[in-house]
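Ticket #4471: complex job returned nothing on first submit. Input attached below:
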Amino acid sequence: MTADARTPPRVSTTRQTLVRLRGWLLGFTAVTLATSLAVVLGVAGNADVAEERSVPAILASYDAQDALRNAHLAAVDHVGEGGVVLGVGGPGVDFQRQIAAAGQFLTLLAENNAAGDAGTRDIQTIEALLVTYTGLIGQADARFREAGLQALGAALLRDAASLLDDILVRIERLRGKQLLAFDDQAYNRWTDGHTAVVWLLPLAALGVLLVCAQVYLTRRFRRAVNVPLLLATVAVVGMGAGTALSLCSAGRLDRTRGDVESVHKSRQWQISDVGFRAANGLVVEVQTQCQIGCEDSIGELRLSFPSPSPSPSVASSGSSLPGDAEADAAIKAHARDAADSRSVEFALPLLALGITVLVLAGFRARLAEYGDQST
Amino acid sequence: MREYGWPARAAVVLVTVLLAGVALNGCSAEPVSEVTIFGPWTDEEQAEFEAVLKKFEEYSEEASEKDPGKTPRVKTRYEGHRDVSQVLQVAIERGRPPDVVVLPRLNDLQQYVNAGRLVPLTNVLGADAAPQLIKLAPKSGSDGPTVAYGVAMATHLKSVVWYDPAQLATFGPQPPRTWPELVAQTKRRAGDQQVRWCLAMSSQPVSGWPGTDWIEDILLHHFGQDTYQSWTSGKLAWTSDEVKSSWTTWGELLDASSPGTDLASLYTTLKMAAKGLLADETPADGTPPGSTAARRCHLDHQGSFAIREYRKHVATSPSPAFSFFPTPAPADKLANSSLQEVSDDVAAMFRDTGPAGQLMKYLAGEAAQKARRDTAAEVAFSRRTTPLEEYKDPVTRAVAQRLRTATLCWDGSDLLPAVMATAFERAVMVYLKDRSRLDSLLAELDALRAKVPESDWMDLSCVPAAKEGT
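Support reply: We reran it on our side without changes. The output follows.
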């Protein structure tokens, strides 16, 4: 065996460099795709749940409270006008309509409940108490129809009012749980600004590598520009822009949360106002039925619902107001906007595939020039 | 040896770290089982019971540490509902019953035993639980033996009338010992003011039950234990002389009180009654006397749980700022004075799980009762023979004393089938508004009684109070 035969064949260092560079570029493309896609899907998934479940559940909880307060007001008002609670025509029908609406809103809340088992249990309890509440109103109605027993009707209305307060507190707590779920969707590791580092770093590294490759090829082979690599660099910028949309989605979720908070005040005022008017109606009824020894009861009824401070932005009659509908529509629109990924999850793999093809194409001609030969 | 690049090495390191993390997490997390409990206690009573459950969790944690393989650590989740029966019914219909439930009505317990929904506690509890056990037999289908299905968690003394000792002179030289004395003192004027009963019917989830307590108490003390048991088991008619007489006796007492007492009671809550009884006292929050409501009444027929409310209106505790006397019997039936109407909140097990059994065992023991006394400032009574020295407050000690010296008869409304009890409560409300309807009310109640299936009635007898050492 000769010395030449024992020496391994010399591999071209340029070819080696080209292969390595291509490998790094393909590797970084894969990493960039993985990180960008993960972030985009993470944000979009949460925004979807927020739009499809949490926001409708939160709004349904306000609507259910509103409908229940108005149902009770309808019952009390009708008694004050000398009618019976459930009678055909007038507020009797209004009571039934509002109760039916409350039932529908609670169903909507149950369907969209984002608070898991705890939320389901709460809804179950609220529905059970609602059965007791409507039973009390039914009894009150029967007593008001019976000559000489109107005082009992008023007492039953009072019991119903107390139970309704309990039900509304439970709906309030349930809303709190839906809000917590919404916060989990809006403020998590995917929407955190620091998460941008996870996808920006590989993306930047890929861009830098592409530029380095371009410079290397220009110097080594004395060509002006490697067009496929230039196009790949443009595609990387496209990936960056697409992934950056997730930051916008996070911002829109944050805005939706702000919208929910701003609507809370007006909704609460409205519910308090209806409660105040129902309590006043009940006070008048108890005063009519009990002239001796009821001072404490009447005082307590008055205290239970102090007059709400005037709110110029909210009218004082009816249930859901045009302003509420607009605010609700705005919240839903922002949530929908946040959940709209603009098909970035499909564009990213296509761009990554394009970069892969362009990188392979960009190196193909140069590698072909070398084959296995040394420089 | 083949050399790997840094990405491969990094991947190996990363996977190793992840696996180690998972393994460590698995080691550190002990198995935790959750027990769900439904009960009738809300607000401060809920906080007190949750403190008892917290003690149980600590006990469970200690047991788990001592015996890590066998005893799991138990977490509890309590839900308090004023209408726990209704909420429980819905939960069962939806297929999501709690593990344990505390029921305020014994008849609900019987219905769930009949339906075969409750887990017998025979193999769950120790001998220590005996004084608190409620033993029942299924009353539908094939009759079975009497088995322990419930644990009386909290016992309330009901045959008592509360008053302010400082106001004793307003209604008499001493608390009445007989029914006629009670009526006479109610009629007595003091400074142009008639003695007014603190009558409160408004309550959640249903109004009227304080009135049913009145009628049951009168029936028990005027006609004795056998008549009372005959009525609670559905054998004695509502239109019978004994039952009708109990209603009219109550009506006469109310007539002797100041005008409007009955009608106002329809709108009066238990809290307002307590405030009316003790309004002149300095409230516990330091507000000067008289700054709340004026004293509106002087006698309150209410269960021992009322102590919690009274204490909000007295300056110091323990202090005999309020006291009680037992519901008096007629002069010729003083032997009935030893009979006491009581109500129990009973814990029962819906799901046969080890952790639920652990909780039931704890609730049936002295440790849970001590925890209740500690967290509820002694307003916690049971059928156990707890040493009286455990009660520092003279009022709570007197209640505990009474519970161990009398014959205890269950609250009649708690024994009646739900539909019957509800009708009874409604009848009381109507009676307070219009006494002339009594005959038609009793006839209606009897018509309903005839429709209730035999298996829905309970036949629990009064029981002598537990003796020391039992």
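Residues 11-29, 282-293 of chain B have pLDDT under 50 and may be disordered. Closing as resolved unless it happens again.
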